[in-house]
Amino acid sequence: MSAAAELGFEAFDADNHYYEAEDAFTRHMDPKLARRAMQWAEVRGRKCLLVGGKVNRFIPNPTFDPVAKPGCLDDYFRGRNPEGKSIREIFGDLEPINPAYRDRDARLALMDTQGLEATFLFPTLGVGMEESLKHDPEAAVAAFSAFNRWMEEDWGFSYQDRLFAAPYITLVDVDAAVAELEWALAHDARVVVMRAAPVELPTISYSPADERFDPFWARANEAGITVAYHSGDSGYLKFHEAWGLGGEFKAFDFDPMRLCMSAAPVSDLLAALFCGGVFDRHKNLRVATIETGSSWVPGLLARFKKAYGQMPFAFGQDPVEAFRRHVWVAPYYEDPLLELRDTIGADHMLFGSDFPHGEGLAEPLGFVADLEGFGKDDVRLIMRENGLSLVRPRPA
């Protein structure tokens, strides 16, 4: 019996990825800004991506061919490495890139075998690029505009009502952000992705809750589009560096201090949005946190409860209740999922497999095995209905 047949329905995966084509950032790039944004170059006989004129190491092999096998790091992320293998050893042999990682029709055919009706599609390389361009807002805007046009061309934003690729929005230029959102909406985008970080400019940074960004939030609010915050380079390794460790973000660089530090970008981002009144001013907003886990949720809500008790005048509404209305969380499969259910409710939990990444699940529906203790109705909410609700207009 197939996993979908055993489950009783096809699922909605809120965290799938593509591997970017090599021209994802360059195909539609303004040639006048190319040298300031993204270029390919050969360095010591190896093809490297230059971002802002520097070799970018966010992804070890940004050509993605060969690539890691899906789910090869599963045991590692469950804390099981009794032999003390290095991350390179755990990755094992790489494999040629699967056409389904770059071709939308091949992806749909694969999803049919996986029991997936639909999925959000997020960048792999793209979520690490804004930090590298924060010194040059004009180049950043041009780079992500080019990236989004590649994405729409190769994947589409709602292809066959099954593949919902998320255009990337940066707030470094609010007028450009509104224009990019308008363009995305005109091309039937149902979700956009942003980074969980302050809005950083060359000489100053702002909270995304600052009212200067309200034109963007107002349009997202009016459209009812889902705003997703996906893990990537948030710039938080500045805190890592402050403790005497490396300050350059590299995927799969899992040193113990980085894993054990308390800084949680998505938690701080949501603290900024709620304490800054974004959800008071824009009551229709929907936010999804993707591939950022859920261990930070109880602590943030506890801090909200205390702050609201101390300074109710500083909030337009109870931030705990507002969080439960406005935010959906895709936990890591190894997280304490029952605790998350008891904190925000099953109706605001999302199933995300991170397929086809090595740190995700080899078979997306394997997520169900970690929903032990959940009732049948809650399983259906998490595995299907909650995700589908986020690609549909929000009821008035």
Index terms:
single chain; 3-stranded parallel beta sheet; globular; 15 helices; TIM Barrel; 34% helix; alpha/beta; 396 residues
Explain this structure to me?
The protein has 396 residues and is an alpha/beta fold. The protein has a single domain (3-34, 104-389), classed as TIM Barrel. Helices cover 34% and strands 13% of the residues. It contains 15 helices and twelve strands. The strands form four sheets. A four-stranded parallel β-sheet has the order 7-10-11-12. Strands 1-5-6 form a three-stranded parallel β-sheet. The protein has a three-stranded antiparallel β-sheet with strand order 2-3-4, with no helix packed on it. Helix 6 (174-186) runs parallel beside helix 7 (214-223).
Write the layout of secondary structure elements.
Blueprint: H1 3-7, E1 11-17, E2 38-43, E3 46-51, E4 54-55, H2 74-77, H3 87-91, H4 104-114, E5 116-122, H5 137-154, E6 163-165, H6 174-186, E7 191-194, E8 199-200, E9 205-206, H7 214-223, E10 226-230, H8 237-242, H9 256-260, H10 265-275, H11 278-281, E11 286-290, H12 297-310, H13 319-326, E12 327-329, H14 337-344, H15 376-389
Parallel strand pairs: 1-5, 5-6, 7-10, 10-11, 11-12
Antiparallel strand pairs: 2-3, 3-4, 8-9
Helix pairs in contact: 6-7
